[in-house]
Every structure is written in C-alpha cells, then in structure tokens.
C-alpha cells in the first residue's frame, strides 16, 4: 500500500482549538451572508421562471444586454456570459400563465434594441412556481434525511456518540459549503443539491475510516489515554485520507477548469466539498469525540466525590 506519511505522529488533537476557530469564522461569515441576502440564492429549479440561452452577433456586451432586459420589464433578471462573449444565459423569474411568454418578450426586446445584430434563441427552459416549491421541499428533506440517517447508521455500527460526532461534522461541511455559495452569490440548483448529497457521503466515508481505526486501537492500546488513541488513529489513516482526497480533488478540479459553464458550479461545489470534508474528518469529527469523552469523565469525577 502506498504510504505518503511514514510513522506520522502529528498532534492533531492539539490543533483542535485552531480548527474550531477557523471553522467558526467561515461558518459565521457564511451565515451573515445568508441573513443579509435573505437566504440562499435559489435557481429557477426551485423558484419558478425561465432560462434563456441566447447568441448575439456582434456581441453588445453583458451590461448592454442586462440593460435591455431590465427595460423590457424584467428588473430581477440575471444575465451572464455562457462559454463565449457572444453567448448569454438570461434567467427570468416568474413564468407567464398566458399571452406572450417571457422568452418571446425578452427575444423581442433584444431584436428591437439591437436591429443590426443577429439574435438566436438556442434554448429555453421553464419551471412553474408550484413545481419549484415542491422541488425545494424535496431537496431540503433529502439533505436532512441523509444527515440524520448518519446518526442511526453509526449508532448501530459504533456507539451513539460516534453518530452525533459524525452528524455534526457532516452538518459542518454542508453549512460551510452553503455559506461559501452565498458569499460568492452562486445559485443553488438541483445539480448543486446532488453535489451536497455527494459531499455528505464522501465526508461520512472518510469519517468512518477514522472511527473504525479508533475502535480498533481502543481494544489494542488500552493503556494509552483517549487523546493519544485518537491522535494515533488519525495519523495511521492519514495517508489513506490524503490519497483519497487528492485523487477525488484532482478530478473535481479538472471538471471545474475544463468542464464548461454547464457543470462549473457543480464541479466547484465538489472541489470545495472534498476539501472541507477531508478537513472535518481529521480536525472536527474526532476532536468532538474527545470533547464528549472529557466532559463525560468530568461528570463521573464529580459524581464520585463524596457529598459534603
């Protein structure tokens, strides 16, 4: 087996306060951004609306297209480049129930404002607000169900405290990634929800590997303290953790750079999720076990003291 770290002996538990402070700062910044923006920036998959993919030659520039679309009555529309300077992705919230569609209105406004340009509507997607609301509820339920099933699974495979520690580490990954998406003003679409679920599974798998080694060392090294066992277990699985994260990260990062605009946000979510999932499996999950153990030990000592 390939080993990146031979006889690793890093004091992971000694760095847990620094790790907790770093995580708290990132989570705090993300939560402030979410509150300031009124929640995540949901895509039309969840809010309802239309997405248009338009090619305009010669290109008028993103700012000019945004001005034309806003002048047509779509003041909350979003306009961005899509792969090339001539190609635009226009997001129009709300879908008309009758009469001229949003796509036709936007296309007519562009043709009227740019009579010398060639305007080609390549793609139109619509989602009704009712369907969008149902998809949002289903997406949130999926993420919550995946998180809380972690507790049940690990409580059966290990013990209850392992399940709680893994759940908190998994929620840590989801909240941080969601906060970063808010800070960068990126949309949450169905593909991003799929990425969140993938991150949950990836982070859980890494955490289980470490927890399994902790359980094994608890039997083999009974004379060592709990902190030493946790440190030893993380160090013994460190090569496996870094190799797995490295190969997954390389794939996700390549997709982010070269995959094109369609999967850009999905690949970014996976890239960041692999990083935070690896961080939490080393610096969050096991330190939470240590904090639980030390608190339980203090409680036992208090109970053992004779009453005055």
CATH superfamily of the largest domain: Multidrug efflux transporter AcrB transmembrane domain
Distance linking N and C termini = 58 Å
The outline comes out as elongated
Order of helices and strands: HEHEHEEHEHHEHHHHH
Overview of this protein structure:
With 308 residues, this protein is an alpha+beta fold. The protein has two domains: 13-41 and 131-304, Multidrug efflux transporter AcrB transmembrane fold (Up-down Bundle), CATH 1.20.1640.10; 49-127, Alpha-Beta Plaits (2-Layer Sandwich). It contains eleven helices and six strands. Helix 6 packs antiparallel against helix 10 and helix 7 (190-220) packs across helix 8 (226-236).
Outline the fold blueprint.
Elements: H1 16-37, E1 41-42, H2 44-47, E2 49-57, H3 62-71, E3 78-81, E4 87-93, H4 102-113, E5 118-127, H5 129-157, H6 160-183, E6 187-188, H7 190-220, H8 226-236, H9 238-258, H10 264-283, H11 285-304
Parallel strand pairs: 1-6
Antiparallel strand pairs: 2-4, 2-5, 3-4
Helix pairs in contact: 1-6, 3-4, 5-6, 5-7, 6-7, 6-10, 6-11, 7-8, 7-10, 8-11, 9-10
What distinguishing features does this structure have?
single chain, 308 residues, alpha+beta, Multidrug efflux transporter AcrB transmembrane fold, Alpha-Beta Plaits, 2 domains, 4-stranded antiparallel β-sheet, two-stranded parallel sheet, 66% helix, elongated
What would a concise description of this structure say?
It is built from eleven helices and six strands.
